Structures are given as C-alpha cells and as structure tokens.
Amino acid sequence: MNADRGRCRLLVRGVVQGVGFRPFVYSTAAELALTGSVSNDSAGVIIDIEGAPAALREFTERLRHRPPPLAVIESIERSELPVRGGTGFHIAGTTRGSGRTLASPDVAICADCARELTDPADRRYRHPFINCTNCGPRFTIIASLPYDRDRTSMADFAMCRRCAREYHDPADRRFHAQPIACPDCGPALDYSIADTDDPLAAARKMLREGGILAVKGIGGYHLACDATDEDAVALLRARKRRGDKPFAVMVADRATAGTIARIDGDAAAILSSPQRPILLLPRGTRPLAAAVAPGNRDLGVMLAYTPLHLLLFGLPGDPPGPDVLVMTSANLGGEPICYTDDDAAQRLPELADAVLGHNRRILVPCDDSVVRVVDGEELPIRRSRGYAPLPLALPTPAAPTVAVGADVKNTCAVADGRYAWLSQHIGDMDDLATLHAFEAAERHLEELTGVRPQRLAADAHPGYRSSAWAHRSAGERPVHSVQHHHAHIAAVMGEHGLPDTATVTGIAFDGTGFGTDRAIWGGEVLAAGYKGFRRLAHLAYVPQPGGDASVHRPYRMALAHLHAAGIDWSEAIASVAACPSDERRVLIHQLETGLGCVPTSSMGRLFDAVASLAGVRHRVDYEAQAAIELEGLARDVTPEHAYRFAIIDPDADGPARISPAPVLAAVVADALAGVDAGLIGARFHAAVAELIVDAARRFGEPGVPVALSGGVFQNALLLSLARHRLAEKGFHVITHHRVPPNDGGLAFGQLLAAGAQ
Ligand code: ZN
Ligand code: ZN
Ligand code: FE
pLDDT for 267-281, tens place per residue? Predict the structure, then answer.
C-alpha cells in the first residue's frame, strides 16, 4: 500500500478495563483520523490502528501520557502489521479468556460530571448519583467480577431509554459506565425524619441548626456536623464516645480548603486527585471548633468526592450553610464502619439526629484514605477508599498467597503472578465485629481477583487474632510465620521493586511487634532481604510494666526508662510528678522484680517516654498521641545540637545495643532547666535521625540501600530529617509512597517474605 501510512497492534496492560479506556481509544483515534479497532481480552486492551505515521506516534504518546484518569498503564507492547487501508474505527466486544480483569477503586466525581451537576440545562442537574466512565463508585458496589451492571448494586435499577442510549454509544462519556443513572431511573435520596419532598434541603437545615447528620456515602455512613460549631462537635464526640482522636473535615472546594489549611502545589494535587484522600495539612488562618482536632497542629482535610457531598454544601442559589463539615465514619470508636441499611437502622439513631440515605446498596465497606505529604512526596497513612483494590506490582512472580496482616490497622492482601492486592482498611481486630469485617473483606478480595491462595502468611505473634484466623482457615495449606519487622522492611523493598536477591539495611521503628526472642521489638536495625533477616542492633531492652497500661500512660514508660538509665525518680521530673505515689510503689517493685513486665525495644514507647519527660503529655487517648504532639511542637524549632544515643558493641555474636541513657539524662537535665518542650522535642528528633545515620554507617555495607519502615516513620519530621541526613552521607534511602509504613502495610510485606521461602 502507500508509504505514508502505517499499521500496528498495541497490547496495553494494566488497569485498563472498566475505566473508560475503550471509549478513550475510540475518541482519540477519531480525532487523529486513524482507523482500526479496540477490544478487551484477558491480557489487557488490544488496539489495531492504522493511519499517518505522525498521527500514530501522537496516538501512542497520548495513550502513554494522557490516559483516562482511572487507567493505570503498565506496559504497551507494539508490533507492526501490514497496512490494510480500512475505514472507520470500531469498538469490538470482550473476548473472555481465563485471565483476570482488574477491578477499579471508587473514584471521586470528575470535572465533567461536576459541571453537569450544576448546569440547570443538563438533564442530570442536581442528580445526587451522577457519574460516568471516569468517575463514580466501583469497588464498593461490585459483588463479583466480571464488572457488569448485573453484578453490582446498580442491578436494582433498570436503565431508562436515554441512559441506555448513552450506555451503548461508544462515543459517549457514559459508554459502559455500569453505575450510569439519571433522575428518571437512578437511586433516590431519603430522609429519616418525617416525610419530606426535599431530603437534601431538610438535611442542610439540620446541619445549619447545629444537628448531627448521618450521610450515606461511598463506602459507608459518615456523621457530619458544622466544624465551626463548638457545641455540635463536642456533642458528636460525646455520642461517638471518642476522646481526643482528631476528626477529619470536608469542604466543597480547594479555595475553602485554603482558608483552614496551608496547601502547597504537591498537597493541592493530592487533595483534588481522583482518590480524594484525607490529607493531613498544617492548619491555616481560619479557626475551627477546638474539639475538631484537640492539641493537634495538623488538620485532616478532604474535598467533597461524591455529587451528594457537593449538594450537601449547596449549589449557587441554595440558602447558605456550613462550608466546613466534620466528616467521620458513623460508628462508635473502634467498631467497623456502618454501611448496610439494616446496620444503619440499628446503630445510627443513638449517634445522629437524622439520616440522609438512599436506596443504592453499599456492598463493601471502605473507609476514607489518609495521606501525608513529606518533602513533596506522598506518604500513605491509611490506604483505603480510592486506592483499594488497585494492584501493586510484585518484583518477582508469586504463587497464589493470602497474607493476613497485623492486629491493629489491619489490612489483608492476596498475590498471584505479577500482582498483589491489598485490601481496604479493616481496623483493629479487638472485637468480633472487626473479625467478621476481616473475613468478609478477605473473601471479597479473593472474589474480585480470582486468587485461590495455596498458602498463607501471618505475623509470628502467637496472640494475634489475624494469625489465629490464618491457622484456623489454612486446612492443608502451609502458613508462613513472618516476623513483624521483617515484614515491614520487605514491604518497603517490594514497593520499590527491589529484586529477590537484594539486601538492605532495614531501620524498623514502631510501637509493638513480636520478636524471635518473645520480647516486644520496635527499635530494630536489620540486615534484611525478602528471604530473611539478621538483627544487627536494637534499642536496649527496658521492662514494659503492665503491657497496655504503659501504652495508655506514657509516664510509666518514662519511669521505666529512667530506672533503666539509673536516673533517680525526682519529684521535680514531670513524669514522676504525674505518677500517683501508690502506682509508683507498685511500679518500682515491678521494675525491680520483672513481675508483669515484658522486655521491649520499642522506639514508639521511647517517643512516648520523652514526650512525658518534656511535660507534653502523660496520658494518651489514642495510639501515638504523645509522639504526635511532640512532633508538632518540635517542627518549627531548629536545634543547635542533638542528643546522642550510645551504641554498645555486642559481647559475642549477638546484636549491638542502642542505649538511650545519655538521651534520657539530657532530656531530664533540659526539662529541669526549663528548656521549652519544643526544643527538647527537636533535639530528640535530631538524635533519632543521627542514630539512623550512625547505624547505617556502622552496620550497613557500601552500596546497600537503607530502608525505613514501621509506624514511627509516619512522623514527618523524623522521616524528613533521616532521609536528608542519610542522603548527605551518600546513602540510597527507600521509604514508603504506596503502602503505609504502619501495620496497614504489613500484609504486603508478609506476601513478599512468604514468597521468598
Ligand atoms: Zn464523571
Ligand atoms: Zn436514566
Ligand atoms: Fe508495626
């Protein structure tokens, strides 16, 4: 044929099905006057395309760099074909092979739908369920794959003629948008109080008047109230039985977010991304009710991510209402999120003054995600709505495996071949309801991915409910026990695609993890690969008296550390004064005899102890509260020097010990001299960063990357300091960007560690 034409076949792999990819290909081809076809098969999307070479190049370029927002392009394979001279471009059907299609996460309302929502001339004007192939619910409405409307909770709604026409038109933005809906055929709102024609107006009135409103969202019910109304927020805390743990807030747009929080370019991009996570941001100039996030320098902010949320804030012409809403999951502290209507009917009346609901069922619970930005990069704190169940690429192919995670911030994960899938956030496994939520999430993950696990991976902790579940459910299949901190380090290695032969110097700092010697570990320096690890050094053991009591009352850990460091319990020390004298008597007995004590090398507990010694906080209401407040105070202070840990060489073959004694002595001296808690905090953060550098230099090998993981690295100040200091010394540092450094990322690490066995 003629030389000014070319033809090729492109195989596109990744998350490319059910995300509007074929309509995108169709319209791009049409725009560039290319001919051919596009179809799905088990491997991905196959494009047969023909036309002018420049247009073909432009086409591939757009595929690679401007795909639809939900698509994740993993690879494009290209093969040349003989020119055929066809006409037109068409979308071919799906050839269902034995491969798997990848389910998409839920996606925030797109700009096009948001525009239609506010356009009085549009037929979906003010429709709370407007969506298209680029946006809307996915993960939370899918019962099983393949992703077709009849396998989602939209099966309850028959499409009207106009919706059906859009659904079948390849050129339409709603081509094969499974949740497609309009006011004629879609779900409808309802309001729990009296009969009203306008549930939204009634709900907005409730919020305006300081009431607490339950709102049915994407992955469950939220409780909402005016975030500037002190009484409303305090009442919400009382009803939820929630102490000090911060609430997140929601606003309608970026401009409003900019008044309550300081937002730079990197933060703005994440805030308005299709995932719309809760972003932890420094507070702005406009104050909110003190009870929103007591004692916290940051604020969790998210943008409205469903059409219903946008309507709740009001469109032009609506009576004004609150423009900042507390948005917290509708459940009592510790319980899983409420998402079914039956559950809502039972649990919500005592929590909310009214319920704004609707008749589209939520099939899968999914909490909001939480993200931090550190040095311009994303640090996941909770990976859930908007991210789950996006696959994570594995560095080496895996046999079908399920990993059950840890008992706090639980997530589970499955792997098969080149992919792993991490579940949504499940929660703390301390009650039956959460165990049931875990079982449901695990089953659904298997269903969505088609993975039939041949083996299991679990934490080595003998008391974990997650591990017990693994052993109970294993049957004939093997269960691999993975040491907690090894799993943390494997997770960050896997996230960076390190090959199976790689080794790192792993710095695993967290609150609690079961050690191979049955002590509570948490200040660990490991020489680690996926297959195994060697413990190079650890924070010197101190007795943790009375387990949980010492987590809730940091002054106890402070006293334990003082005792271990040989520092007298002087009344002048804040932590000593905070400890009632009866408790002190019991404590000294425990510490001297070891009665009711477990040895711990926890870095998280050391942060607690220092926060207490500096007078920041002696009792906590939620995990890491004392450390978070210490970080907040230390953030803007530049210490002219750092405290110093002492590294004590091992007697024989064992690990070195890191003694915090000199740090504690300096903290106490500073506190007694009246040094500001912020400066003590800054000197302490600098000390921990220096310790990491020292450990890397002393124990690491040249060219071996330093991997930072564990819950302590949610601390943005420490993470940033450590990363910079290590980089200055020429180390290659790897940290988390895709899975959380806390136990929410543990299941991913367990998969990788088990896979290497
Ligand atoms: Zn849309
Ligand atoms: Zn319709
Ligand atoms: Fe951990």
Answer: 999 999 999 999 999
**Ligand lying closest to the C-alpha of residue 484:** 3
Task: Identify which ligand lies nearest to the alpha carbon of 167.
Answer: 2
Give, for 286, the enclosing helix (H) or strand (E).
Answer: none
* Coil vs helix vs strand at 551: helix
Mutual orientation of helices 677-699 and 716-728 as an angle, nearest 10°? Answer: 40
Question: 3-class SS at 711?
Answer: helix
Ligand nearest to the CA of 459: 3
pLDDT interval class at 15 (50, 70, 90)? confident
CA of 161 to the centre of ligand 2 (A): 7
Q: For tokens 């991210």, name the residue.
A: 387
Site of tokens 């507390």: 326
Neighbouring CB atoms inside 10 A of 582's CB total 8
Strand, helix or coil at 55?
A: helix
**Six token digits for residue 223:** 């409780």
Query: What is residue 48's three-state secondary structure?
Result: strand
**pLDDT for residue 98:** 44
Q: Which ligand is nearest to the CA of 486?
A: 3
Q: Give the distance (Å) from ligand 2 centre to CA of residue 396.
A: 46
Which pairing describes strands 455-459 and 479-482: parallel, antiparallel, or unpaired? parallel
On the 0-12 / 13-18 / 19+ scale of CB atoms within 10 A, 128 is buried
Q: What is the CA(168)–ligand 1 centre distance, in A?
A: 16
- Summarize pLDDT for 290-325 with one digit per residue, the tens: 999 998 999 999 999 999 999 999 999 999 999 999
CA distance 757 to 752: 9
Average of per-residue pLDDT values in the chain: 94
How far apart are the CA of 711 and the centre of ligand 2, in A? 47
**C-alpha distances in angstroms, 89 versus 43, 372, 695?**
21, 44, 61
Give the lowest-confidence range in 142-151, 517-526, 590-599: 142-151
Report CA(601)–ligand 3 centroid distance (Å): 13
Identify whether the C-beta of residue 657 lies closer than 8 Å to the C-beta of residue 650: yes
Ligand nearest to the Cα of 307, by number: 1
pLDDT at 591 over 80: yes
3-state secondary structure of 514: strand
Say what the pLDDT of residue 86 is.
80
**Band of pLDDT at residue 95, cut at 50, 70 and 90:** low
CB 368 within 8 A of CB 277: yes
Closest CA relative to residue 751, chosen from 366, 421, 300: 421
Structure confidence at residue 1 (pLDDT): 45
**Tokens 């998280």 belong to which residue?**
604
Closest by CA to 154, choosing from 170, 136, 173, 171, is 136
Helix axes 661-672, 677-699, angle to 10 degrees: 160
Helix, strand, coil tally for the chain in percent (to 5) = 35, 25, 40
**Alpha carbon distance 18, 485 (integer Å):** 37
How many angstroms separate the alpha carbon of residue 520 from the centre of ligand 3? Answer: 11
Query: Mapping DSSP to helix (H, G, I), strand (E, B) and coil, where does residue 341 land?
Result: helix
Ligand 2 centroid–CA 159 distance in Å is 5
Nearest ligand to residue 174 Cα? 1
Residue 260: name the closest of 291, 228, 295, 219 by CA.
228
pLDDT digits (tens, 9 = 90+) for 249-258: 999 999 999 9
Q: How far is the CA of 132 from the centre of ligand 2 (A)?
A: 12
* Nearest ligand to residue 166 Cα: 2
Alpha-carbon distance values, 213 to 70, 306, 334 (Å)? 31, 16, 20
Task: Note the pTM of the prediction, 2 decimals.
Answer: 0.93
Tell me if residue 700 falls in helix, strand or coil.
coil
Question: What would the 3-class secondary structure string for 82-141 be?
Answer: CCCCCCCEEEEEECCCCCCCCCCCCECCCHHHHHHHCCCCCCCCCCCCCCECCEECCHHH
Q: Which ligand is nearest to the CA of 110?
A: 1
Going by their DSSP bridges, the two strands 520-528 and 533-539 should be labelled as: antiparallel
